[in-house]
Amino acid sequence: MQKAKELHIPTVERADFLGLITKAFKNTICVSGTHGKSTTTSMISVCFLEACKDPSIQVGAELKQINGNYRVGNSEYFIIEACEYVESFLKFFPKTEVILNIDNDHLDYFKDLDHIITAFAKYVRLLPDDGLLVLNADDENCSHLSRFTMAKTITYGIQNEHANFVARNIQFDENGFPSFDVYFNNTFYKTIKLSVPGMHNVSNALACICVCHIYGIEKEDIKNGLLKFTGAHRRFEYVGSFNNVNVYDDYGHHPTEIEAVANALKNKKYNQSWVIFQPHTYSRTKNLLNDFAKALINFDNIIITDIYAAREKNTYDISAKDLAEEVAKLGKKAYYMPDFSEIVNFVHAHAISNDIVITQGAGTITKIGPMLKLSNSINILSILF
What we know:
This protein is of the alpha/beta class. Helix content is about 30%, strand content about 25%. The protein has a ten-stranded mixed sheet with strand order 3-2-4-1-5-6-7-8-9-10. A six-stranded mixed sheet has the order 11-12-16-13-14-15.
């Protein structure tokens, strides 16, 4: 960017550029919310592909069905992940908005939860009168947003039986994959089976079903699309195993996301759980310290490594050691280990058959999964550089 300016080459911010693209499509479907954006965007995309709708796609994670994170289609449909950070989603031109949930996050920009909700209200106002708003009826921070638009609103929920689309008779198989009956306005709609774990993905699937229903996707295409979806990259993604210990990698870097992973594990069969967590940004760690600790104690074994700074400098007087100490206050041991090779050696020495290991976070923590698979005779440091 700086070099382009020096050469007097016109530049444009990413959000502005994506906004111009959204304006070019008759049906731009924007998926937003604090948690679940990439997964739900991917679910909708796979269902539209299953129905041969030939959509254009922009998602915040790699999706195997499109061999990357974007696809250029030849139709009126553009399915895009819309992030609330620095209110960048206000640059978009949506025909349909999906709001999955609203939670405390990005507090380096937003002042508080009310500020975040206000940003989402502005976002909803972008909808045209003939647009569509999809809301999570289980999330109290979303429930009032329909009053900011004349667009049609359709709701979904698991707990809220008054939602338009509701999941009932939820069951989990030995892999933690849910199946459930979908009801639309209290009438049976379809039985759905997922190939991704966790109750949070039942909720994400309901949001997907709302969009697909409105756009006329056949129920069988919805069913098949959701069954074929095996997850976006770094979303509870299976990495491999060592000594009969399965290793997964997850991008979640917010307490709610970590808790969702822990809850998903409850429906899987294993011996003990291990979480290797790399906090993401100093501001998030500082502001949500106790929430992180409460989420982490859902695992049997906890390892915390140094904070991934991302865009920040540590002006918050916070460290990963502080989080380990916060976990200890809740009566559980957390190991602070700044060195990845030390973590790998420790897990190799202490994890036993049928344990499950999760590498958790949005930074470089993803390197540990492949390292765990390597033989102890291989120089682990070589993968770091």
